[in-house]
Amino acid sequence: MKTTLEEASQCPTCHEPALKLREGPHPQRARAKLIYFRCANNRCPMQGQGHVVQINPDGTIPIRQAGPKQYPELPNDFGQTEAKLRAELEAQRRGGAEIASPYRP
Ligand SMILES: [Zn+2]
Questions:
Q1: What are the DSSP calls for 7-25, one per residue?
Q2: Ligand 1 midpoint to CA 51 (Å)
Q3: What confidence tier does 88 reach under pLDDT thresholds 50, 70, 90?
Q4: Less Cβ around it within 10 Å: N or C end of the chain?
Q5: Ligand 1 mean position to 14 CA, how many Å?
Q6: Ligand 1 mean position to 99 CA, how many Å?
Q7: 101 contacts 88 by C-beta, under 8 angstroms
């Protein structure tokens, strides 16, 4: 089973084309890559949630599955957790100051 990038980029909930955030190498599979998408449809119940599409080294795209390819669900706290995670990511990229993780006790 395979799918096209156009299909795979759609929001899994509302099936609108989602916004491409970034792409990068697959952390576990050599030469495969991951593309991160975010639903931009403000009528979608999953708005602001992302999903990840895997591109195999041969260019095929496996059918999306629930589980490891999905983002972990973020707590519904109006983006506070997401903002923290983004700030952490930024800090990691810059190698700068450590920001407390919301998941740390
Ligand atoms: Zn959507």
A1: HHTB-TTT-PBPEEEEEEE
A2: 10
A3: confident
A4: C
A5: 4
A6: 30
A7: yes
